[in-house]
Design a protein that fits this description.
This protein is α/β, with parallel strands linked by helices and about 450 residues long. It is about 30% helix and about 25% strand.
């Protein structure tokens, strides 16, 4: 079965689940994802203080519907999870149309869309429907019914770690709390899942990769309360994955607050050199996803965000128009490809050490330099692996700047070659024990 088909099937299994920031929907989502990657689920009990927050009670929803005087169903969460305000209190009463409208949410400028509305931390009840549905209601009495409860339970998250040669970690974080939305919910977890399996196949993984699936905001805050110190000590870079669908949409990177983030520097370098084209956005705490928590001043972790069809900028944001057809599974596969390529370049973009730094090594001894200095040899090297002056230029430049103070992207700025072009030169030098690396921090270097 190819990736595209597997993604499509995973989407269809996850989409109907009634998710929230706590509860069985989150656990069911994790259990399904565990069939694809070895996630370990954890829970933090209701009432636990996590910094300035407290883990809420679990919300359990059994039924929610509105019926008219004749018993005809107007809306029912069996048809669409978004029809009830997420975390609604229970209700069972008859209301006039005028009274009902006070508890119904619509999007007037998108009359066919049903909004996604939440009330996690204030007790209230409510329903959501399209403006067209509301306008079609006639005067009369309506039976509103929500069978829900809030119980002591736990907030759940899950993670999986792919070890590398270095203990320095790359954090890949995504959220699993929105019900029945495609781009704004399922694009992140699906891309993260298939990205994990791509990275698992890498034969020589340099960095360690930590994949985290959690409820948005309260989930990342809870996660940081437990693993924040570990991340502060070990993280190299990271990214939140969200809104990664959208046919023909360009991959966009939101910078981390930490200006020294390797991903900030790498993506900026690639754009400036014109080797790849990404939309780069500045960091801001005013909107976004869990990067706001990872980048809060107490942590200031080098965690950015990857998106495509960005939150708040498309018609289906936080409503029922956010469908698989609009998102497309093909766009998710493209996102996996693009992010994997960026992570491969990040692995390459470390620090290197010249193992024979006193003068240039005698490259001819390693068959890395022309064995005759004549006009006809300037365009070639006798090495089968380094077959032109470009590669020889790379070798000479790498050896000179591999002092543990320059990243590969710093070295690459001196010559107009792409980062990928340096890999063969690095491999050749390492094969002859002339170069060591990549390294990602001073502890590894010295």
């Amino acid at each position: 079965m190819n990736e595209l088909k597997e993604m499509d099937e995973l989407f269809d299994r996850l989409f109907p689940i009634m998710r929230s920031i706590t509860g069985e929907g989150v656990r069911e989502t994790i259990h399904i994802l565990q069939e694809y990657i070895p996630l370990e689920m954890e829970g933090i009990p209701t009432g636990t203080e996590v910094f300035d927050w407290e883990i809420p009670k679990e919300w359990v929803i059994h039924e929610a519907w509105i019926k008219d005087e004749h018993g005809e169903t107007i809306i029912d969460i069996k048809d669409l999870n978004l029809h009830v305000v997420n975390y609604s209190e229970p209700i069972d009463m008859w209301l006039s149309l005028e009274e009902l409208k006070k508890h119904v949410h619509t999007i007037p400028h998108l009359p066919e869309a049903v909004p996604y509305v939440i009330s996690y931390y204030k007790e209230r009840w409510g329903f959501c429907m399209s403006q067209n549905q509301l306008d079609a209601l006639s005067d009369g009495k309506y039976h509103v019914y929500i069978d829900s409860e809030k119980i002591d339970g736990e907030l759940n998250f899950a993670q999986a770690v792919l070890p590398g040669k270095s203990k320095k970690e790359v954090l890949i974080s995504t959220y699993i709390c929105h019900p029945s939305m495609a781009n704004n919910e399922l694009s992140g977890p699906i891309v993260a899942t298939f990205l994990y399996n791509r990275l698992k196949q890498w034969e020589n993984r340099e960095l360690t990769y930590r994949f985290v699936f959690l409820p948005e905001t309260i989930g990342s805050i809870a996660y940081l309360s437990k693993y924040g110190q570990h991340l502060k000590e070990n993280i190299y870079s990271g990214a939140v994955l969200t809104c990664l669908g959208g046919k023909e949409h360009q991959l966009s990177y939101k910078k981390s607050r930490n200006t020294n983030s390797p991903l900030n520097n790498l993506l900026t370098y690639l754009n400036e050199r014109g080797q790849q084209s990404y939309s780069i956005r500045p960091f801001t705490p005013l909107f976004g996803s869990d990067e706001r928590q990872y980048c809060s001043p107490g942590f200031n972790l080098p965690v950015g965000q990857f998106s495509k069809m960005i939150y708040g900028t498309y018609k289906g944001y936080h409503n029922s128009l956010d469908t698989k057809e609009h998102m497309t599974i093909e766009a998710l596969l493209t996102s996996v490809n693009e992010i994997e390529q960026i992570l491969q370049l990040q692995e390459l973009d470390g620090y290197y050490i010249n193992k024979k730094p006193f003068g240039e090594p005698k490259l001819g001894k390693y068959d890395l330099y022309p064995d005759i200095n004549a006009p006809g040899t300037w365009g070639n090297s006798s090495s089968k692996k380094i077959d032109n002056r470009q590669q020889l230029n790379q070798v000479l430049t790498l050896l000179n700047y591999s002092d543990g103070k320059h990243r590969l992207s710093d070295v690459a700025k001196t010559l107009n070659y792409s980062l990928e072009d340096y890999k063969i030169s690095i491999d050749v030098l390492k094969e002859h024990q002339l170069l060591e690396g990549p390294f990602y921090d001073e502890k590894e270097l010295f």
